[in-house]
Write the structure tokens for this entry.
Amino acid sequence: MKGKKDSFYAKVSFYLSLGFWVPLFNLALSMISIFYAMKALKLIKKKPNKYGGFTYAIIALVLSVSSLLMSVFGIIVYFKKKSCVCPVCPI
């Protein structure tokens, strides 16, 4: 009997990764999404007949990691005092 594969963790990680546009929550959502995506990938690797959603997990992982990196980069640039080198900025 062939049943439907369980892709709960993969889909949860994908939907959480779409929260990258929510200010102040994007860092937490990205980290939680990375956790669920890694968990889904481990389950898919361990039992491929039971678990599915590999594409969801990979897309969520890419979105979450890129969102996390861009947020951290933005925070560093924001708090760095001499980040602007243009002659117009009064630093």
Q: What stands out?
A: The helical segments are 8-17, 26-46, 54-79. The two ends are 69 Å apart (CA to CA). The chain is about 65% helix and 0% strand. The chain has a mean pLDDT of 87.
